Amino acid sequence: MWTRAELKEKGKMAFKRNYWKTVLISFIMALLVGGAGGAGGGYGSRNEVRTVVDVDGTGADVPDDVDTRLDGIEDDGFFVDGMSKGQMVLFIAVIAVIVLIFVAIVLAIVIAVEALLINPIEVGMRRFFYLNLNSKAEAKEIAYAFDSNYKNIAKTMFFRDLSIVLWSLLLIIPGIVKAYEYRMVMYLLAENPDLSKDEALAISRQMMDGQKWKAFVLDLSFIGWRLLSVITLGILNIFYVSPYKNMTDAALYEALKNNGAAAYIPQEE
Q1: Which of 255, 181, 258, 259 is closest to 8 using CA atoms?
Q2: How far apart are alpha carbons 122 and 143 in whole angstroms?
Q3: Separation CA 232–CA 16 (nearest Å)
Q4: How far, in Å, CA of 176 to CA of 170, rounded?
Q5: DSSP output for 83-96
Q6: Are 163 and 178 in contact, with CB atoms under 8 Å apart?
Q7: Which of 29, 51, 78, 175 has its CA 20 to 30 A from that of 144?
Q8: Can you give the pTM of this predicted structure?
Q9: DSSP-based three-state secondary structure for 192
Q10: Are 212 and 175 in contact (CB under 8 A)?
């Protein structure tokens, strides 16, 4: 069985042994998959003065504390600039359809980029981290998926992500559990690109059986480092925390594989 201390120590030693390449690959992965964290934003103050058009067409600025009522104005059947209410409803409906189509196109592009580019690159980066545990790995490993059964890797990763998303639609907790369940899929493909979708997902479930809580606690053990990274505006995360965490994750895969999980992986004849 593995312990957090053992995994973190091995990850740290491997990271330091090949420092700059590990930093580079970790930085690229943070940019691609959002590992560097998101940015927050806020709304500025608004000018709450409203403009009301009176009967003769002149405008007047009315402060917030004045309740202006235009009950005495006769409804002449027009809404804005001579456009009837029916025309306005139709106009809004057309705009809504255009917006929905635009959103759908953008979403389709994002999904395609994720499935066809980012996921295969991440598999290559996980291969780098795994190989880097016991010897200095080369940065070229990030392109591994494109030369090693690319279609199968892209398809398997797509269905892994789809499963996690669908479970997340039920509730947050089932989605998190499913993400931990399929945590080893990337490493399995990084070593065995010919594994079918069903094999990769099944083996990952078997590897993580009884290990999900321990893996969750392992992730929690990096919270202090994450807080320090925030204080340093992300600099510590780039040059230490993210590479350290990535190498520790690879050490977890190696530990689970050495603890009998390798028996689940089909062997080449």
Answers
A1: 255
A2: 9
A3: 20
A4: 11
A5: EEHHHHHHHHHHHH
A6: yes
A7: 175
A8: 0.76
A9: coil
A10: no
